[in-house]
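Readers of this paper often ask what the protein records in our data store actually look like. Below, we set out a record of this kind in full and without editing:
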Amino acid sequence: MVRERKQGRRLLWAWVGGGILIAGIVAITVSSILNSQNPTAGRSHTMTPSVPASDPPTAASSVVVDPSVADRGWVPEPITTDANVYIRSALEAAATFDTQRSERDAWLTYLDSWFTPDTRYASEADQQDAMSTAQLELRQSVVLPENDWTSLAGEDGRVTAAVHGDIDYTQVPEDKTGLMEIGTADVVLTFTRVDSDGAEHAYDEQVRVSVQVLCDGESVPTPDSDQQPGDCKIVRYFPEPMEP
């Protein structure tokens, strides 16, 4: 199985995480509009002032696996066969957290529950290996790095992600069923920090990210949940946007 790897380009979320340290300092000390350079062609990144949001995240679907996870600052996983609805929530889930409500490892373990084996592989062992690889890739190349989480936590920080605009779809290589989708969209990340005086400061960053989902009878539901085989699940997050 050939899996896409683009060399020589910086990883999307790792780059965003690295920029948080500088952006956070500037946001707290001057509370002004932040600007940064676009590290690679075809990737958008903007910063604008934002009004702090204290409400917990909500899923795009009213039926979710576990609504209580919103109390921990996470996005509830929707129960749906609609790829558009699921992809929006999946993209937001990979960058929505509150460092004061949960630990990073717990958040990542929660994101693991969104995954399902890649049915393009014939054997169960290969499917499980591919899923483990995708979950490791999420940790190493997609979400906020641990050092930047620690920095954000030191300022009682949180991040809320929201998909803006339409989702662009890309064909999944070697998927003969046509039941998988790769969705790519612009996501606005709202970072909120608390300064030494207890005042909140927020700013936005816009990134473009992709996720691959499976919505068919072979998807594996979350154990002990109302999900059913065929409900949408994540196959893989991509460290760089997969444009059509």
